[in-house]
Write a structure and sequence with these properties.
Structural class: mainly alpha
Shape: globular
Order of helices and strands: HHHHHH
Radius of gyration: 14 Å
Distance between the termini: 37 Å
Low-confidence stretches: none
Number of helices: 6
Largest sheet: none
C-alpha cells in the first residue's frame, strides 16, 4: 500500500531498502556519496535556505550529484534559474558535506 509520495535521494532511499535484497543494496551503495544521516542533514540545511524555487526534487538531485561548481549546479537544476547569491548559498551548503 502506498502511503505517500516524496522525492528521496539515493542516500535517503537506503533507509527504506530491504536488507533482504543484497543486489539492490549493492546497487544503491555504488551510487551514493553520502550516508542516510548526511543526506537527511543536507536536505534540512538546503530547506532552511528558504529558496522558493528550490523544491524536494531539486534537493534530491543535489544530494545525489553533489555539484562542485556553478556550471554543475546549473546542469542539475536546468529547469529553474537562481541568482548568484542563491547559487553561492547552495554551493556553500554542499561543501559542508564533502
Amino acid at each position: 500500500m502506498i502511503k505517500g509520495n516524496k522525492a528521496l535521494s539515493m542516500a535517503e532511499a537506503q533507509e527504506y531498502i530491504s536488507e533482504n535484497n543484497p543486489e539492490i543494496n549493492a546497487f544503491v551503495k555504488n551510487f551514493t556519496k553520502l550516508t542516510f544521516e548526511q543526506g537527511k542533514e543536507m536536505r534540512e540545511k538546503l530547506l532552511s535556505l528558504d529558496l522558493i524555487k528550490l523544491n524536494e526534487k531539486h534537493i534530491s538531485k543535489i544530494i545525489d550529484v553533489l555539484p562542485e561548481d556553478k556550471d554543475e549546479l546549473n546542469k542539475v537544476l536546468s529547469d529553474v534559474n537562481f541568482d548568484e547569491n542563491e547559487i553561492n548559498n547552495i554551493l556553500s551548503t554542499i561543501k559542508e558535506f564533502k
